[in-house]
Amino acid sequence: MSRNRTERLVNLVICLLSTRRFLTAAQIAATVPGYEHDPDDPKEHEAFQRKFERDKAELRELGVPLETGTASVFDAEPGYRIAHREYALPDIPLEPDEAAAVGIAARLWQHAGLAAAASSGLAKLRAAGVDVDPQATLGLEPMVTVDPAFAPLTAAARDRRQVNFDYRVPDRDAPTRRRLQPWGVVCWRGRWYVVGHDLDRDATRCFRLSRVVGAVRVTGEPGGYEPPAGVDLISHVARWSGPVERTGRATVLAAPGRAAGLRRWAVRTVPDPAGDRLTLPYADPDFLAGQLVGYGPDVRVLDPPEVRDAVIQRLKEIAARHEDLAVAGGAR
Amino acid sequence: MTRPAAKGGSRASADRLARLLNLVPYLLARPGIEIAEAAGDLGVTERQLREDLELLWVCGLPGYGPGDLIDMAFDGDRVTITYDAGIDRPLRLTPDEALALVVALRMLAETPGVANREAVERALAKIESAAGDLVGAPVAVRLPGDTERVRELSAAVERGRALRITYYTAARDETTERTIDPLRMLMVAGRAYVEAWCRRAEGVRLFRADRIDAVAELDEAAVVPPQARRHDLTDGVFRPSPDLPLITLRIGRGDRWITEYYPCERVEVDGDHWLVSLRVTDLGWARRFVLGLGPDVTVLAPVELAEQVRAQAAAALAAYATPAGAAPSADQAVGAVTQ
């Protein structure tokens, strides 16, 4: 946009903010510098209309609340104005420590689009007279990242619009199309999810945003549904990943100085002539077996038999699988 | 999310229009501000700011006479708006701006161990109320973590002392004592880290807070050598470099989750199995990883790793075959496995 265009748009904003009655395109053309043309020349008039349409689109894109209406019952042609009340940022009386927090929050985004939105939002707060200390820190700062599906899904949830998307679950071979009325987006333990009403399952479902393949398609009209009142989004996600109760106790023998990872979560360590006897809490014997097998001969399960047997079974299968390969590779 | 992809220079120009509409109220709120200070604050050059002021100077109310145009008084290097032509407030926040600020503040408020959480929460409440309806922002955040440990660490980092830590390194399955000079604390994908100069490694390292088993503050200031560089974390904590060993595994259906947890270089479908290639920092780690994955995983490359996995499994089985009480020992394994 040339300097002329910027100048014209600033003047257009000022003009429409200052008027209480709706101004028609013709009145605006006669008033705001940069729109001068001969309305009787069809070519010139058409060029003006195109220019004016582009300018209106630009203002709306920026978030300028352009109102449309007619000045009186005698006017057929629509006019435009900007209500100051709708245009202006309300007063936000931020204390210095609050302003510093907003300043820090604005630079956490690692996502280019949201980083730009955060910094233009912060620029408006500054323009409203808020001073932001750029040196402030809060000791610990999160890096905020999101998946590409974040933007379309938050917008759809905000506008209550139905969407569909392809969703890939690793243990399925192909993505499946899901139809959802999104209620909201959740960050739980650093991962993003969308929660909503799954129309095909006719039930509440959570989807991990990183598993959405390709574009999210908005298929519904705004306000197409109403999420349940007082819905607790977090609880729907947390339900599937709550803390595990580790009530089982396994005893293993760890070679001296080895298996540092296991030693860290042993609830009891007793020295033994052959190393150390570690008592490990566990919930699922098979899951524990996987972890223990990782340490190979450094760790031997003494008890209980369910864990010991699971470990031996896994070891046998792993050894058998790699027998031929290692031979074929000529490593032995 | 943001404005649609711009054609030509229209994005830059939209930015300029937004900046100009902000500039008048910004200066109005700060009569007599130095131009250099304002430019720094607004993130533009002094020259750019002067050009913006020149442009505003010819804008104003219809009539466009001397009394209608935006006016300003200069006093040396200072500027004061004397007539604002009606742009006395910035534009309200767009839905995207409100969302970006509110979600980042919620993240901050939820971060375990963040200092002055109370100020973050007050700020959040004020921004939410100013943004009004826009922040039916349907985004909830919860980052559970070991708040005590993280708070202890960030307090220590804040005081600027060198720290003695007991640290578990998963890549080598060992616990070591290190002296570190902290740079900062940060949180990536829900996990807290201390970024610090490690005197033992003589480089900048990220230490996961949940793997710091003990911490003691030393009686000396943290001194970070000038060559220390912070990590670029835009692509996550682990960015595999091409000189790391590449391993290829044939995995069953139940192990496909690894493609979501580790950056994989290649994933190929082989009937019901997947062939997955990923870079690892350490073959010893890869060996523990593969053994722990379970029976439906086969190492295809490197052969060295396949042999280690086989030898370890065989040695462990041999230990179970000997009478109880006999010592398990790494020495029973093939020598090559101990890295």
Automatic annotation (TrEMBL), chain A:
The record's annotation in InterPro entries points to: CBASS_pafABC_assoc_protein, WCX_dom, WYL_dom
State if Signal is listed as a keyword.
Answer: yes
User: Can you list the GO cellular component terms from the UniProt entry?
Assistant: proteasome complex
UniProt keywords (A-Z) are: Proteasome, Signal
Q: Is Signal one of the keywords?
A: yes
PROSITE patterns tied to this protein: WYL (PS52050)
Coiled coil feature spans: none
Every WCX domain range: 248-319
Q: In which domain of life is the source organism classified?
A: Bacteria
Q: Where is the signal peptide?
A: 1-25
Q: Which part of the chain is the WYL domain?
A: 149-213
Q: Which PANTHER family match?
A: PROTEIN PAFB, PTHR34580
Q: What is this protein called?
A: Proteasome accessory factor B
Automatic annotation (TrEMBL), chain B:
Q: Sorted alphabetically, which keywords does the UniProt record give?
A: Proteasome
**WYL domain mapped to chain residues:** 150-215
A GO cellular component entry from the record = proteasome complex
* Domain (PafC HTH): residue spans on this chain: 15-128
Q: Which domain of life is it from?
A: Bacteria
Segment forming the signal sequence: none
Where in the numbering of this chain does the WCX domain appear?
A: 248-317
Q: Which PROSITE patterns match?
A: WYL
The protein's name = Proteasome accessory factor C
Q: Give the species.
A: Micromonospora halophytica
